[in-house]
Amino acid sequence: MNDVITTILNHRSIRHFEDKPLTDEQIETIVACAQAAATSSFIQAYSIIGVKDKEKKKRLAELTGNQEYVEKNGHFFVFCADLYRHTIMGEKQQKNVTPSLESTEKFMVALIDTSLAAQNAAIAAESLGLGICYIGGIRNNLEMVKELLNIPDRVIPLFGLAVGYPSHITDKKPRLPLEHVYHEDEYEQDMDLYYSQLDKYDQLISNYYDARTNGQRKDRWSEQIVSMLSKQTRMYMKEFIQKNKLDIR
Amino acid sequence: MNDVITTILNHRSIRHFEDKPLTDEQIETIVACAQAAATSSFIQAYSIIGVKDKEKKKRLAELTGNQEYVEKNGHFFVFCADLYRHTIMGEKQQKNVTPSLESTEKFMVALIDTSLAAQNAAIAAESLGLGICYIGGIRNNLEMVKELLNIPDRVIPLFGLAVGYPSHITDKKPRLPLEHVYHEDEYEQDMDLYYSQLDKYDQLISNYYDARTNGQRKDRWSEQIVSMLSKQTRMYMKEFIQKNKLDIR
Questions:
Q1: What's the confidence (pLDDT) of residue A242?
Q2: Which residues from A are below 8 Å from B246, CB to CB?
Q3: Are the C-beta atoms of B232 and B198 separated by less than 8 Å?
Q4: Which of A94, A151, B6, B95 is most buried (CB neighbours < 10 A)?
Q5: Of the candidates B52, B80, B95, which has its C-beta nearest A230's C-beta?
Q6: Which CATH architecture has domain B3-171+234-243?
Q7: Domain extents in chain A
Q8: Which of B89, B111, B124, B97 is nearest to B158 (CA)?
Q9: Nearest CA in chain B to A129
Q10: What secondary structure does DSSP assign to A26-55, as a single string?
Q11: Distance between CA atoms of residues B168 and B161, nearest Å
């Protein structure tokens, strides 16, 4: 077990931060680490917007469903899938890159590129003794987020990353059994085994909530997730993405 | 600069590996690290298939465009966006989760979840002295990859990750200027600045190839990328993804 693996395994989401901003040096290190991630065919299909402006942070907190830690943290990053610069380069060279840029394949590439970069940023931040929380809530209201941050077409904010000095450390949440997520040579489709793994995990999660809440909460994982999925959220996304000239063909 | 940041900044893709398999302990550590990544609303929307079978690895190398290092490495992982287990859980609880699972939003969530997990795996592997290479070529022929690995609906192999002991170390490729990728408070849309940053980077990359190939290659980044984007590749993706009951609404 080395420091890198210890850092990675020690991850938990932090939602309470001290009122202490990151230094410019910390921010640069985190961004440089993001950029060091692999990128599909060297396409580098992402941008990162760091938000320091207090009014904008307050507004972002509202737009993400009143999450206080979007406003109160050491720094707030917005990770964006970005095929805008590729649009510009295509225009400049007068080459038709539109079918590629509008393809589902390149949409996927941009999402993957952005996420690999973000996870490097997250791990780098954690290695500096900082805590992080991914903010998917940024997708609640992308039109307004784009307007607030002056974001052009073919750039989609995917999530925020709140970073800062932790003022309250939470527990780590147990993950699905390794053998349920990791398959060898083919995808395991023995349904008895599949269900028994999920059952075992459901019980583990129920015990976890039970212990954490003094018996007030005992959700099983599969019930929690199915309940979440029963609600239809962010169903505007398809139209929004296509309006932004991505994932069209 | 700590060990974590050093590891992250030291990344380069490795395409030549020694003939030495990873141990089961190494594989388990890498998968455990993948699972430690953040996951959107605790959804855990991915699976990982480790391929040991020699015939399957050989076939995968063919399917990814004859990339030798897909066959010859220490271990080959296939990272899959996975909303299959959520389908099963919904059916078992007789709740209608179909609109959610078919949404563009949940497709994005699955891609992001998978990529965050994969990057943890990559960094963990590199910290163990191993080299890695992401294999996007797996998306050349997803129908056949799915058949080969017995992968159900709503599970999409996104990329492979070849891992092993490096037998040849490549150079690190310079990334876009930090100030081009990282914006403060809003997306920089001063086009003169935008172009000048790209020009500067184009020259850097041209010099990089020049030095690496003894003057035989001097591509500028923007030309390389626009040339790549002028070709329409993997245009079957939209139909394929929707046939797999994802990204439909």
A1: 98
A2: none
A3: no
A4: A151
A5: B95
A6: 3-Layer(aba) Sandwich (3.40)
A7: 3-170+233-243, 178-218
A8: B111
A9: B2
A10: HHHHHHHHHHTS--GGG---EEEEEE--HH
A11: 17
pLDDT score recorded for residue B173: 92
| pLDDT score, position B170 | 87
Cα-based torsion angle of the residue sequence A110, A114, A117, A119 in order, rounded to the nearest 10 degrees = -130
Provide the shortest C-alpha distance from residue B63 to chain A (in Å).
Answer: 16
Retrieve residue B130's tokens.
């191993």
Q: Is B105 helix (H, G, I), strand (E, B) or coil?
A: helix
Report ipTM (2 d.p.).
0.98
Whether B89 and A4 lie within 8 Å, measured CB to CB:
no
Nearest to B187 by CA among A17, A70, A88, A93: A88
Which pLDDT score, from 0 to 100, does residue A110 have? 98
B186–A149: do the CB atoms touch at under 8 Å?
A: yes
Sequence-distant (≥ 6) Cβ neighbours of residue A59 within 8 angstroms: A148
How many angstroms away from the CA of A215 is the closest CA of chain B?
21
Spatial distance between the Cα atoms of B156 and B152, rounded to a whole number of angstroms: 9
The Cβ of residue B65 has, within 10 Å, a number of other Cβ atoms equal to 13
pLDDT of residue B1: 82
Outline where DSSP puts E strands in B129-175.
Answer: 131-135, 155-164
Q: Which residue of B has its CA nearest to A43?
A: B225
Backbone angles phi, psi at A31, to 5 degrees: -70, -40
Residues of chain A with pLDDT under 50: none
Amino acid at A206: S
Cross-chain residue pair A119–B119, CB shorter than 8 Å: yes
For B134-160, the pLDDT digits (tens) are 999 999 999 999 999 999 999 999 999
What are the residues facing A13 on neighbouring strands?
A: A132
**Alpha-carbon span A63 to A40, nearest angstrom:** 31
Task: Look at residue A171 in the predicted model and tell me its pLDDT.
Answer: 87
What is A3-170+233-243's CATH number, 3.40.630.30, 3.40.30.10, 3.40.109.10, 3.50.50.60? 3.40.109.10
Euclidean distance between CA atoms A43 and A1, whole angstroms = 34
Optimal mutation site among B1, B108, B148, B154, interface A, most CBs of chain A within 10 A = B108
Mutate to test the interface with A, among B3, B9, B173, B182 (most CBs of A within 10 A): B182
From chain A, the residues in CB contact with B140 under 8 A are none
Exposure on the CB side of residue B66, measured as CA atoms within 13 A:
0
Those residues of chain B that have pLDDT short of 70 are none
